[in-house]
Amino acid sequence: MVKKKREEFLKEKEIFLEHIQKAGLRRTSQRDLILEIFLRTEDHLTSEDLYWLVQKKDPSVGHTTVYRTLKLLTEAGLAREVRFGDGKTYYEHHYNHEHHDHLICTECGKIIEFFSAEIEDLQDKMAEKYGFRLTNHSLRMWGVCGDCQKRTNEYIEAPSGAQPRVRVKSVVN
Ligand SMILES: [Zn+2]
Ligand SMILES: [Zn+2]
Ligand SMILES: [Zn+2]
To answer: Which residues make Cβ contacts (< 8 Å) with residue 74, sequence separation at least 6?
Structure first.
């Protein structure tokens, strides 16, 4: 398993190297480090998140370098930009990753990835119906995850005279 993962990274590193050469850029140890950490993190990251992870390994890497490298990774097809309606741009692995869509918890920010052949199918049918040639799509559904529902229920059921906590939530997007 571990061996297979390493080989996958090799392929991804090769793709990246090819891309930066084509872009007329040099291979640098900072870019290598950013790529390495990105590949090892199976998560949805903002460039800020990745910056802090990279900082732990090499404090000399600047914010702009991380941001630009993420852009390069996206152009090379290794990363994909995703937005979850909080105004931030997140990046996730793209190369060798199956297409998936997202469920987003508005309480804790948890993101669940899912794939449904039926939904994919319906989307194709809808596009066809409107004479639309589909090139890409991103389905995002917002709501409250199971854990947060449990937490809220526990709170409501708690027998106490305390004032209910008022939650003011502005819905972005
Ligand atoms: Zn989809
Ligand atoms: Zn939640
Ligand atoms: Zn995802």
So the answer is: 80, 81, 91, 94
Ligand closest to 102 (CA) is: 3
Ligand nearest to the CA of 104: 2
Domains of the chain (ranges, CATH numbers): 2-93 (1.10.10.10), 101-157 (3.30.1490.190)
Helix, strand, or coil here: 102?
strand
- 167's tokens: 């939650």
Instruction: Give me the helices (H) in 23-144, please.
Output: 29-40, 47-57, 63-75, 117-129
pLDDT band at 3 (very low <50, low <70, confident <90, very high): low
Centre of ligand 3 to C-alpha 101, Å, is 7
Ligand closest to CA 137: 1
> What is the arrangement of strands in the sheet containing 140-143, beginning at the earlier edge strand?
111-114, 101-105, 140-143
- Closest by CA to 63, choosing from 74, 73, 53, 76, is 53
In this prediction, residues 27-40 reach a mean pLDDT of: 94
